[in-house]
């Protein structure tokens, strides 16, 4: 038969092992939670960078479009200023456009 003191020691040893495993499991869960928090923060930062990049891209396209429009207007203005003012009236009278 087993001595009650030995049985108590075995029970305490088992309880100690289970407590140790429980602490290890809690540590692993906390570690996984921390890693997930870090990953979600990194994903949020990347999303913010992507939105910023897209906004700068839209701004660049708009600025490029405005530049092309201004260049076209400048070419039209230069073309009109270079002509003789009466040339248009003469062209209209002669039928040449």
Description:
- By secondary structure, this protein is mostly helical.
- The chain has one domain.
- Helices cover 90% and strands 0% of the residues.
- It has 2 helices and no strands.
- It has helices at 4-82, 87-94.
- The longest helix has 79 residues, at 4-82.
- It is rod-shaped, with a radius of gyration of 41 Å.
- The relative contact order is 0.04.
Features:
single chain, mainly alpha, about 90% helix, about 100 residues
Shape: rod-shaped
Helical content class: over 70%
What is the overall pLDDT average? 86
Helical region count? 2
Number of beta strands: 0
Order of helices and strands: HH
Distance between the termini: 123 Å
Provide a short characterization of the protein structure.
This protein has 97 residues and is mainly alpha-helical. The chain is 90% helix and 0% strand. The chain has helices spanning 4-82, 87-94.
Write the layout of secondary structure elements.
Elements: H1 4-82, H2 87-94
């Amino acid at each position: 038969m087993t001595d009650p003191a030995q049985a108590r020691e075995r029970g305490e040893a088992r309880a100690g092992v289970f407590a140790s495993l429980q602490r290890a499991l809690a540590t692993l869960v906390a570690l996984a939670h921390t890693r997930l928090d870090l990953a979600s923060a990194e994903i949020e930062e990347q999303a913010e960078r992507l939105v910023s990049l897209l906004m700068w891209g839209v701004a660049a396209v708009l600025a490029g479009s405005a530049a092309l429009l201004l260049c076209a207007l400048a070419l039209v203005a230069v073309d009109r200023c270079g002509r003789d003012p009466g040339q248009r009236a003469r062209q209209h009278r002669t039928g040449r456009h």
